[in-house]
Amino acid sequence: MMTFEDAKKIVAPEGQSISKTRSQIIVGDSREKVKDLPGDFYASCITSPPYWGKRDYGIEEQVGAEFELENYISSLVAIFREVRTKLKEDGTLWLNLGDSYTSGNRTWRAPDKKNPARKMSYRPPTPEGLKPKDLVGVPWRVAFALQEDGWYLRSDIIWYKPNCQPESVKDRPTMAHEYVFLFSKSEKYYYDYESIREPSKTNGKLRNKRTVWEVNTEPFADAHFATFPKSLIVPMIQASSREDDFILDPFFGSGTVGEVCNMLNRKFHGIEINDEYISIAQKRIKSYINGRIF
């Protein structure tokens, strides 16, 4: 259980040792910090890395800002190869990724009144072999690369967003989904299917959870963008961990995984490089301690 004293010490700045007994936000670049984590320790890794070429976070050499798609994929493969050594033998990885279209070799993107975070000072060039207006297929390219690197690819989940961001396109459907991939470290792994059974729409009886999850996005005023929804994270944590287990999020962002861990009596380590997001996450997690909102 997180205490107020734990909440005060939740941010572990550069040079501070990583605790094996309490939750922490670890400050730094996940490409380096994940190497310092304890091995064979985490029940699950639940994360949503920056999407390729979708947002400018203002961090030099940030993940997601690689000009070459292959470099982005290689960066994620290297990070999650290291993550695999930090998971218990029966551990899992839940990976959320959104797709993108080629830029048509446009080098920047103007802000949108409804979505200021859309503004970008750079745009990656069209990947070799693709054409302007092509859907890149980033999630599946990453999933196959991770599978080739040794992960067991166990499921692809469609995150259907009923309140998706509107698009002004007139030559294709509006994108209203993202992918969540379930990977495992080993052939046999911990998965509590009973904890996430869902009512059937035909007879109301509980059934095994399906691969299409209908979850609204959650606007978050402090961050000025839609965050990883809590209701998307809950079944991942329930199915892949027990109470007091540690969950890892190497791209912690505004701290949704940490907040849900607190709600479900799990502990977490989250890695984040952006000072603004660290402040937001710290505020969110401090406000929810031991099942109480303050």
Report what the structure shows.
33% of the residues are buried. β14 (288-289) and β15 (292-293) form a beta hairpin. This protein has a single domain, classed as Rossmann fold, CATH 3.40.50. It has helices spanning 4-8, 30-33, 69-86, 138-148, 230-240, 256-263, 275-286; strands spanning 11-12, 24-27, 42-47, 87-97, 152-160, 177-184, 198-199, 206-207, 212-214, 218-220, 225-227, 246-249, 267-272, 288-289, 292-293. The protein contains seven helices and 15 strands. It starts with a helix and ends with a strand. With 294 residues, the chain is α/β, with parallel strands linked by helices. α3 (69-86) packs across α4 (138-148) and α5 (230-240) crosses α6. The strands form four sheets. A nine-stranded mixed beta sheet has the order 1-2-13-12-3-4-6-5-9. Strands 7-8 form a two-stranded antiparallel ribbon. A two-stranded antiparallel sheet has the order 10-11.
Q: Which helices and strands, and how do they pair?
A:
Layout: H1 4-8, E1 11-12, E2 24-27, H2 30-33, E3 42-47, H3 69-86, E4 87-97, H4 138-148, E5 152-160, E6 177-184, E7 198-199, E8 206-207, E9 212-214, E10 218-220, E11 225-227, H5 230-240, E12 246-249, H6 256-263, E13 267-272, H7 275-286, E14 288-289, E15 292-293
Helix pairs in contact: 3-4, 5-6
